[in-house]
Amino acid sequence: MPKLGVNIDHVATIRQARRTIEPDPVWAAVLAELAGADVITLHLREDRRHIQDRDVRVMKQTVQVKLNLEMAAEEAITDIACDVHPHQATLVPERREEVTTEGGLDIIRNFDRVKRCTDRLLARGIEVSMFIDADPRQIEASKSLGAQAVELHTGRYADATTAAEQDAEFEKLASAGQFAVQQGLVLHLGHGLTYRNVQRVAAIPGVCELNIGHSIIARAVMVGMERAVREMKELILG
Ligand code: PXP
User: Are strands 39-43 and 186-190 parallel, antiparallel or unpaired?
Assistant: First the structure.
């Protein structure tokens, strides 16, 4: 059964809109955990637009389930990750002007930079997951760097506007997922997943973790964090 990683970044987005202390993403993490989240995911961006350094440090002390830090493969962020020591680091691409993470990390093109970061994280005992497109070459590159897991980008599947397009994107995810598992990598999926599109990908054989943020926080604003997490978890467990 896949595990649910709840990304709480957008609780911090609301807080940063007023540069105040509420709502606190740490509270959101506690409620998500109480409702059955298996993983708490947060993204410390270089521009600090939502999650702040303090959030990562406090969550390391308070989160009882697995803590997954999404991060760019940059030296200054790697310093923080090595200091805080989350269970897992998910390496993502970052561009300052983007609204959210667009596309997977191109490990082949950024090989040396990603390798420097990965080597440091692995030496510190932090598990590394690569957020990549459903592309066998990126999976092989992830494996060659010693990553334990890959998170396949589900954005194109989620954004598909026709059934045929969605089917095609689903097939890419399913076959790349199978390839990753054959390579001995732990399979994660994430980005753009919602209460309506999650079940199909949750059923891909070998999926271990689904990381979901926007849709859960959007629902939580209406129905509360615990109910939003519980409803997503029920869908994933089928
Ligand atoms: N996985 C990764 C690597 C991400 O960067 C994000 C967005 O921060 C997510 C999952 C969650 O995406 P969404 O907010 O669309 O559910």
Answer: unpaired
Choosing from 51, 188, 191, 235 the residue with most ligand 1 atoms within 8 A of its CB, the one to mutate for a pocket test is: 191
Give the three-class secondary structure for 51: coil
Which helix (H) or strand (E) element contains residue 219?
helix 214-223
Catalytic residues: 43, 70, 191
Those residues whose C-beta lies under 8 Å from the C-beta of residue 169, and which sit 6 or more positions away, are 156, 157, 160
**Pairwise CA distance, residues 162 & 81, whole Å:** 40
CA distance 228 to 9: 15
Grouping H, G, I as helix, E, B as strand and the rest as coil, residue 209 is strand
What's the CATH code, domain 3-237? 3.20.20.70
pLDDT, tens digit, for every residue of 48-76?
999 999 999 999 999 999 999 999 999 99
Task: Determine the distance separating the centroid of ligand 1 and the alpha carbon of 162, expressed in angstroms.
Answer: 22
- Where exactly are the structural domains of the chain? 3-237
Model confidence pLDDT, tens digit, residues 186-198: 999 999 999 999 9
Return the structure tokens found at 153.
Answer: 């980008």
Calculate mean pLDDT across residues 148-177: 98
State the number of CA atoms in the 13 A half-sphere of 44 facing the CB.
Answer: 22
